[in-house]
TrEMBL record:
Family annotation (InterPro entries): TPR-like_helical_dom_sf, TPR_rpt
Name listed for the protein in its UniProt record: Tetratricopeptide (TPR) repeat protein
Superkingdom per UniProt: Bacteria
Length: 265
């Protein structure tokens, strides 16, 4: 950036992005690009634009924007950031193995670059790699990576959720419930998507442990959360109904007077 004023605007745009105001940050980064002349500044600004677009769910536009970046105009740390953003786009497009390979290759590059080893992007890549290992079914590799994600990492909630999912797949239900509980305990600090998933998966884990009353307590909280996802809603209701049925075999059940849900006595 050429002037102090531009630097201050850039830093303000970064703060907007970090606060989740991706649309406003994107507009500011695009304005800054129109005011910039140096190729390295333009490349960096487009990288930040790509990040905003990915977080906004604009997958196609993010892919187009990163394609306009001249990677060799970026510094070494930002070139790693480029690989990180590319991996995020591939993940959003559900090319999970491609995304994993990209993140792993970028992590190898970091090992050889002392300026990148302790950077934020190095932490982001490690977290993303752990999440992708979980999503590609490589739970034995994912678990030690995800267990190291610090709570201050912006990706901690999703990483901890995936850690619980890996424990669940390995039938370590008690450990999975603890991981989900860590996410739930953060309350409103966690994105609602991850919070609801943690509650849902806790219910499923309690069900598989045969603790049906606890499963019901969890699933009742989120049974109306998935109107836009009929298959997921159906799955939740099926487990909830089965939990009630299991309890009927050993206790008295009546209908809740206001919600219509069944209560165990």
């Amino acid at each position: 950036m050429e002037t102090q004023g531009l630097l201050e605007r850039f830093e303000a745009a970064v703060r907007k992005m970090e606060s989740g105001d991706y649309s406003a940050a994107l507009a500011e980064f695009e304005l800054l690009e129109s005011l910039s002349e140096h190729p390295s500044d333009i490349a960096l600004l487009r990288l930040f634009q790509t990040s905003c677009l990915t977080d906004m769910g604009e997958k196609s536009e993010a892919r187009n924007r990163i394609g306009t970046i001249q990677k060799n105009q970026l510094g070494s740390v930002d070139q790693i950031g480029y690989e990180y953003e590319y991996a995020r786009i591939m993940r959003a497009d559900e090319y999970l193995q491609v995304a994993l390979d990209l993140s792993r290759n970028a992590l190898k590059s970091i090992e050889d670059d002392k300026d990148s080893r302790n950077s934020t992007v190095a932490m982001n890549l490690s977290t993303l790699s752990g999440i992708l290992l979980a999503e590609t079914g490589k739970c034995d590799e994912a678990i030690p990576v995800l267990e190291k994600v610090p709570v201050e990492d912006p990706g901690w909630a999703e990483a901890t959720l995936k850690l619980g999912d890996c424990k669940y797949k390995k039938r370590l239900y008690g450990e999975a419930i603890k991981n989900y509980g860590d996410v739930i305990s953060r309350g409103k600090e966690v994105h609602p998507i991850f919070l609801d998933a943690a509650i849902r998966n806790t219910g499923s884990a309690f069900y598989d442990l045969g603790e049906y009353a606890k499963a019901i307590d969890c699933l009742e909280l989120i049974k109306d959360k998935y109107e836009d996802y009929p298959s997921l809603k159906s799955e939740v209701l099926e487990i909830l109904s089965s939990a009630y049925s299991k309890l009927e075999q050993g206790g008295n059940v009546q209908m809740h007077p206001s919600t219509g849900s069944r209560l165990v006595q």
